[in-house]
């Protein structure tokens, strides 16, 4: 009898296994301390195969950043229903953000801590993700403000700074929530929504935020 042939794993699946292992290693150990040997062992492949697929440690780290950034932005956008009022969309977007960062703490560590401290190449990848999130939040706040004030021509620049502040606060709060036992995504989102609602008082109508 001939030898039994095993089915080869598709390249895309193998790459995702490598990225899973790399995100876990980079997120928990840091970029400098992470080794390709450790990542290969965790992924269940040889180190030469990791290099064959992803070229270098830098390229592997960049691929991790891009994958985690895409997953986060998709989670936030996917959590928002466009048929709801703008304030509710903002609430749902925040809750989706905190739910995703809580469910993927290693990925959030890669984006929030590691990528920003190990060179411009990596930091620029995160900056692109952040710009997309700020633009998304800006539009939600603009719509909410225009609806509340019945002013369809309210300039976007009046809320641009608030969107920057809100995204920055969300980043810091997610990092805190991920290391603070018992903090849920809903609690984190409620904290930030109340903070945002106070800041939006001049643009909206001063109503306190309440999750209906």
Overview of this structure, please?
- The chain is an all-alpha fold.
- It has a domain at 65-199: Tetracycline Repressor, domain 2 (Orthogonal Bundle), CATH 1.10.357.10.
- It is 72% helix and 0% strand.
- The protein is built from nine helices and no strands.
- It has helices at residues 11-29, 36-43, 47-54, 57-78, 86-103, 105-114, 120-149, 157-178, 185-199.
- α1 (11-29) crosses α4 (57-78), α4 runs antiparallel to α5 (86-103) and α5 (86-103) runs antiparallel to α9.
- The longest helix has 30 residues, at 120-149.
- It is elongated and about 60 Å long.
- 33% of the residues are buried.
Topology:
Layout: H1 11-29, H2 36-43, H3 47-54, H4 57-78, H5 86-103, H6 105-114, H7 120-149, H8 157-178, H9 185-199
Helix pairs in contact: 1-2, 1-4, 1-6, 4-5, 4-6, 4-7, 5-7, 5-8, 5-9, 6-8, 7-8, 8-9
Measured distance between first and last alpha carbons: 68 Å
The CATH architecture of the domain at 65-199 can be named as Orthogonal Bundle
Compute the number of strand runs: 0
- Which structural class is indicated by helix and strand composition? mainly alpha
Summary tags:
212 residues, mainly alpha, Tetracycline Repressor, domain 2, 72% helix, 0% strand, elongated
Describe this structure in a few short sentences.
With 212 residues, this protein is mainly alpha-helical.
């Amino acid at each position: 009898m001939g030898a039994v042939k095993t089915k080869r794993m598709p390249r895309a699946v193998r790459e995702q296994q490598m990225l899973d292992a790399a995100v876990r290693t980079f997120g928990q150990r840091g970029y400098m301390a992470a080794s390709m040997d450790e990542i290969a062992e965790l992924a269940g492949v040889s180190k030469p195969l990791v290099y064959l697929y992803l070229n270098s440690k830098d390229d592997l780290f960049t691929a991790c950043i891009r994958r985690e950034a895409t997953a986060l932005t998709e989670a936030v956008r996917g959590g928002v229903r466009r048929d709801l009022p703008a304030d509710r969309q903002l609430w749902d977007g925040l809750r989706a953000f905190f739910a995703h960062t809580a469910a993927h703490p290693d990925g959030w560590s890669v984006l929030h801590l590691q990528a920003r401290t190990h060179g411009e190449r990596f930091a620029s990848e995160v900056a692109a993700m952040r710009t997309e999130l700020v633009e998304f939040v800006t539009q939600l706040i603009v719509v909410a403000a225009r609806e509340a004030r019945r002013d369809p021509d309210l300039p976007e620049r009046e809320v641009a700074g608030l969107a920057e502040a809100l995204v920055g606060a969300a980043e810091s709060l997610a990092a805190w929530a991920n290391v603070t036992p018992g903090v849920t995504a809903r609690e984190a989102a409620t904290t930030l929504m109340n903070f945002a609602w106070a800041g939006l008082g001049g643009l909206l109508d001063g109503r306190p935020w309440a999750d209906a």
